[in-house]
Amino acid sequence: MTQCTTADCEGDANNSFLCGDHIRKLQDELDKIPNLLEDLFITMAKLDKTAPQRHEGGGGLSTGSAMPLRYGALELRQALGLWTHANAEKLAQDQYAGNFLPKLKQLIDNATNCIDNPPEIRVITTCTCGGKVVTENPKPEAGETDSGVCEDCENYYEQTEAMTKFRIFRATPEHMQTRHALKWIRENANLSIKSTDVRNWAREGKLEPTNPKRSKREHPTYNIADILKVHYRHVQENRRSTNF
Question: How far apart are CA 97 and CA 91, in angstroms?
Fold first, then answer.
């Protein structure tokens, strides 16, 4: 009679490497896989999000363009798929059977977390083909590289914060009123800057309007590149102050 190979278990394993209790536990986890695969497909294909409808010719409705896949859910589906037709009693005959239950439970926990808290997809830039370069990774810290894949041609991109700043500065419009400028920054630079910040920077002399000789009825206008430069300068100053 042999002993169960599961860590911290002293149960008897009759003609196998797992005790009866751990065979049942392993089978319970295996039985969860079919439903998880279905839920992961919904998460992977972003069917849990409905795109805005638009009217098409003939009075029909379309849900818009296809959304990019969540690759984390795709990888979990592939990993769980390897266990789909497995049987606990047969797995118990493997000399490494003691490792199967904790590994499978961790995989199932990761899948459940992915379903309950699906990763959001960020668009980091536009590909040369015109498609969106997307990633599931969190936004990198200053100086770190951001990377993603084009959802159309599947080209891989790496982009540093410095490259992003240069691209934004080069393409920024000029002579815009504060609310229009901040809207442009939100939509194109993915930054949220408050109008009070702009007013404070102008009052402190850090930001110069492009129409200094305006009348009292006119609103001040700014170059967006100037707003961004002041913003990044403040971000860097705040980071330095928090390091002490």
Answer: 6
